[in-house]
Structure formats: C-alpha cells, structure tokens
Design brief:
Oligomer: single chain
Structural class: alpha/beta
CATH architecture of the largest domain: 3-Layer(aba) Sandwich
Low-confidence stretches: none
Largest sheet: 5 strands, parallel
CATH class of the largest domain: Alpha Beta
Number of domains: 2
Number of helices: 12
CATH superfamily of the largest domain: NAD(P)-binding Rossmann-like Domain
Number of strands: 14
C-alpha cells in the first residue's frame, strides 16, 4: 500500500468477483487489481502454469482478461485479498493470507460462524475486514453491542435462490413444494449456525448481524421462500437496553447469481475504496 492506492487480488472470479473487478476498473488510480486466485490456480502445483494463465468473462463487451496468480505470489504482492468465492475458500486460504501479513476482505461471512476460524483470521498480522454485503445498519448494531437482548432476521427469497447442491433433502423438498405451489411459505427457522450449515452461500446477512452484535447466538433466523418475490427482502428487528431498531431492506437479486444481492459487489467495492482512503469517513 502506498500514497497512490492499494494493490488487490480477487479470491474467486465468478459473478461477484467479475462485478467487483468491473466496478474497480473505474477507480484504477486508487485500486490496482493485480490478478485473481481461482480453483485451478489454487490446486495447480506448477507455478509457471498458473502465472502464464489469464481468465475473464467471454463475449462482446465482457471486459479485459486478468492474470491468474498462485497463492504465494498473491500474498507477496497484494495489500488486500478480496474474497468473492465461498465459505470453503475462506476456511481453506484465509488463515494463510492474514497469517502472512496480507489483509483480507471477507464476503462469505457465514464462514466466520466458526469461532476457531474467526480467531485464526483475526490473529494476524494481516487484518481481516468484514464486508457489509447486502444490508446496512451494522454500524448501529456494533455501537449497541453489549446492550442487545435479541435480533430477529426474516429473509424472503425466491425458491431458486435458496436451492444449492448441498442442501439437505428435507429442505430441498420443502422449497421445491413452495416453488410448485406458487405460494410463499416459511422453510427455515433456527440459529445463525443452523442457517450457515444449511445455506452457506446465501445467508451471510445472519452472520453479519451476529458479528456486529458481538454474539451470533443473539440472532434468530427465519427464511421464507416466495415464488413471487421480485426482490430479496430482509426484515431486521433489534431489541436491547439502549433501544429498539427495525430495518427493512429490499434488494434486487444479482442477475448473474440470484443467490446473492446485486448490492453485494457494490458494498465490497465501497469497502475497498474506504481502505484505499476514499471518503467520506463515518466513524
């Protein structure tokens, strides 16, 4: 990092990673994207093969391709690694990144429901930053930490956004029935840990609330599958000794990845620009 901006590497280059890369292109004087870490680069034992490769979306107007780096090169060259992949990637590579002194921005906050992983990431010397992702109000919740008695999260999503390969059979059947019926219905109720277990890639909001409050056990999660949902809705209620707060947030799904919000990549870019020194700075 220098006075002329920061050097970053993207961990993951799917829909979110490509969107972050595209938006950061408008700020190349402040943020330089050195390359990406993808599944192949993290698995390939030949550094020469990794560094010779580029990746990027194909087709007209898809934008420039970007170098593929190996993990050691990324850690050595980057000021910040931006995780745009999955909880699995955070668990597999996060501790090595922060342990080597490189900062990490985590989007897959569900991974941090694991206290041991969270402690490993925060042990440093690199810093671990949490993306605000698809919601706001986390500054208020963080300020209220220690006074909060309960947080309720009611999330409403399209059934297709909740289906994923690792989903337990009973949940898959329930969500499929909702999709076929055309009528909204609750499909999940439980803790952050349970929500992250069953929906590891699309309920990061629940983990964000618990992390901001300083206690994931304060958060109760309800998920509603709604075939008519044009937007993903999060209703958040906070009750505490210092006051009661309610947030209602509606986001359009990302067209390239309906499991996540279109706001997610924008939030990540906003966070990167703050780390690069761009204001305004609300403290």
């Amino acid at each position: 990092m220098d006075d002329m901006g920061i050097d970053v590497v993207l961990l993951g280059y799917g829909a979110i990673g490509q969107a972050v890369h595209r938006m950061l292109g408008a700020h190349d004087g402040e943020v330089r994207v050195l390359g990406v870490l993808d599944r192949a680069s993290l698995a390939d034992p030949d550094p020469a093969a990794r560094t010779a490769r580029t990746t990027g979306p194909d087709g007209p107007g898809s934008g420039p391709r970007v170098p593929v780096l190996d993990l050691a090169t990324a850690i050595e060259r980057a000021d910040l690694v931006i995780e745009c992949a999955s909880p699995v990637a955070v668990r597999a590579h996060g501790p090595a990144i922060t342990g080597a002194g490189t900062d990490l921005l985590v989007a897959s906050l569900g991974a941090l429901a694991d206290g041991r992983l969270r402690a490993a990431l925060e042990a440093g010397p690199g810093r671990c930053h949490y993306s605000t992702g698809a919601i706001g109000g986390l500054d208020l919740i963080r300020a209220s930490a220690g006074t909060i008695n309960a947080i309720e999260l009611h999330t409403r999503k399209l059934p297709a956004a909740l289906l994923h390969p690792g989903l337990p059979g009973t949940l898959r059947s329930a969500i499929t029935r909702v999709a076929e019926s055309g009528t909204a219905a609750p499909v999940f109720s439980g803790s952050v840990a349970d929500a992250v277990r069953d929906f590891p890639s699309n309920i990061n909001v629940a983990a964000a609330l618990g992390l901001a409050a300083g206690d994931l056990d304060l958060v109760a999660v309800d998920i509603i599958a709604d075939p008519a949902a044009a937007m993903t809705r999060h209703e958040i209620t906070v009750r505490g000794d210092g006051g009661n707060y309610r947030f209602g947030i509606e986001n359009f799904p990302d067209p390239a990845n309906p499991a996540t919000s279109a706001l997610t990549a924008r939030s990540m870019v906003s966070g990167v620009l703050r780390l690069a020194g761009r204001g305004p700075h609300f403290i």
